[in-house]
Recover the amino acids of this structure.
C-alpha cells in the first residue's frame, strides 16, 4: 500500500477511482434483518412480486459499504480524522445480489481548519456504482461530505 | 400494535416520539469491523488515548440504528414505500457504549405524488438522541428525508 494521502494531496477537481466488492444476497438480507427489515430487503419471494421486481439492498447498507470501500481504498491509516456529517444522499438505482460495487470520489473544496492547524477540511463527492452481470454500470448512490484530513508533517 | 399510519396521518408539524435501544460495546465494534474499521470505532484502548476519549459508534451505524427504530416505531407494516434519499445528515454528538437511544420525528412537508395516486411524499426531520447513565439527553444525529407513504384505502 502506498503512503497515506494527506490534506495537501486533495486538490480541488482531483478524482479517485477505487473499491471492488461483489454484494451477495446473504449480505443484503443479514444487514436488513438487523437494521432495515422491510420485505424488499429481506424476503426474496415477496420482493419478486413487489414494485422493485426482486430483492434490493437497503440504502443504509449501501452507505455503510461505501464507507468501507472509502476506508480501504482512499483513507489509509489515519488520513481521515472524522466528519461532521453528509449532505444530499441520493439513492439513485437499486443494488441487487451479485452486483459489483465500485467507487469514485471527487474533491469539491479544500480549506484549512480555522481552529486546528494540523488539519484541513476537504469536501468530497462520493459516488457508488453498480455493475450487473451484463456489465452495465450505473450510479447507485451519491452524496457529498466534508472530511477532516490530517496535514503532512502535522 | 395500532393500525399502520397512512399519508393522511402525517400532518405538517405533527411530532412522534418512539424507540428505545441501549447500544452495547460489542454492537459498536461488530458494525465497525464490517463497515467502518477506524480505531475510534473498533479499538477501545486506542480510542481511550484518542481525541474522543473512548470508543464511539460509527456515524453510519447510528443512521442504520435510526432506520431500525423508525421501522419498528413509526412505519409499521407497509406504511413506507421507500425514499429517494436523505439530506443534511449531521453527526452532532458521539454515542458511546451503554448509551440509551431514542427517536423523535417531525413532519416538515406533506404533498401528493404527481405520478402515483396511491401515495404521498412526506418530508420528515428525524432526530436520534443519546442518554447516558447520568440521564443527560443530547441530540446525537439529525437528518431530513422525503419518504413515500401509502394513502388510506389506496
Amino acid at each position: 500500500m502506498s503512503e497515506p494521502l494527506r490534506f495537501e494531496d486533495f486538490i480541488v477537481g482531483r478524482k479517485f477511482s477505487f473499491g471492488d466488492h461483489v454484494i451477495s444476497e446473504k449480505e443484503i438480507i443479514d444487514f436488513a434483518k438487523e437494521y432495515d427489515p422491510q420485505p424488499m430487503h429481506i424476503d426474496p419471494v415477496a420482493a419478486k412480486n413487489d414494485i422493485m421486481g426482486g430483492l434490493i439492498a437497503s440504502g443504509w447498507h449501501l452507505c455503510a459499504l461505501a464507507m468501507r470501500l472509502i476506508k480501504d481504498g482512499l483513507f489509509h491509516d489515519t488520513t481521515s480524522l472524522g466528519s461532521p456529517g453528509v449532505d444530499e444522499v441520493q439513492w439513485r438505482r437499486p443494488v441487487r445480489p451479485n452486483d459489483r460495487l465500485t467507487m469514485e470520489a471527487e474533491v469539491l473544496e479544500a480549506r484549512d481548519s480555522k481552529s486546528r492547524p494540523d488539519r484541513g477540511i476537504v469536501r468530497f463527492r462520493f459516488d457508488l456504482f453498480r455493475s450487473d452481470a451484463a456489465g452495465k454500470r450505473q450510479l447507485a448512490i451519491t452524496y457529498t461530505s466534508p472530511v477532516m484530513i490530517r496535514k503532512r508533517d502535522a
Remarks:
- Chain B has a mean pLDDT of 93.
- The helical segments of chain B are 25-35, 39-42, 44-48, 59-73.
- Chain B touches chain A at residues 31, 34-40, 51, 58-61, 63-65, 67-68, 71, 78, 80-91 (CB under 8 Å).
- The beta strands of chain B are 15-22, 85-91, 100-112, 119-131, 137-150.
